[in-house]
Amino acid sequence: MDKHNKLFIKGMVCNRCISLLNKELSRLGLQVQSITLGEVTLAENQPAINDTLLKTMLQENGFDLLRDKNELLTLQIKQLVEEGIKTQAETGTPVKFSKLISQGLNKSYDSLSTFFSYSAGVTLEKYIILRRIDKVKELLVYTDKTLTDIAYELGYSSIAHLSRQLKEVSGFNATHYKKIRKEKLAAAANNGDIAL
Description:
HTH_AraC; AraC family transcriptional regulator; transcription; transcription regulation; DNA-binding
C-alpha cells in the first residue's frame, strides 16, 4: 500500500460523517492518518483493504467510494466551498468563492462553474448560497449568535440581504430557527441534559 493511501468518499456532508467514518474505518482495522469531508488518508503500512467490506460499510452508512474523475472534481469544488464558509465563519472576512475555487483547482472559474452545474444539477452559485444558508440555520439553532453577528461572520453585505436569502431558500425567517433553539434548550433542561 502507498505511504499515503487516499480514499475519496461520496456523501460526507458534516462533522458527524467524519466521526462516524473514522470509527467505522477503525472497526475495519484501518488506521486513519487524516480525515476531512470527502477525503480519507490512511496511515502508512496498512494491511490490504478488503474492497468488498469497505464498500459494504460505506453503503450501509450512506457513503460510497468515488472513482470517477468527474465525481472527484465535483467533490473538490464542494470541499473548497466548505473551506470558504468555514474561513468566513472563523475570521469574519468575506471570501471570494470564485477566486478560492479557481486557485484551489488551478482552472478557470467559468469552466468549473459550467462543469459543476452539469455534474451536480445545480449552479455553483446556488450551491454556495444553499451551503451558506445551512450554516446560518446551524448557527441560529445551536448558538446564541444574533442575525447581525451571523451576517458579519459569513460575509453578507447586510442583515436584510441575509434575511431575504434565508426566507427565500428555507421558507422560514430567523425567528423560526431561534424558536427551535428555545425548544431544544427547554427540552434539554427538562431532561437534565447539557444545554446547547
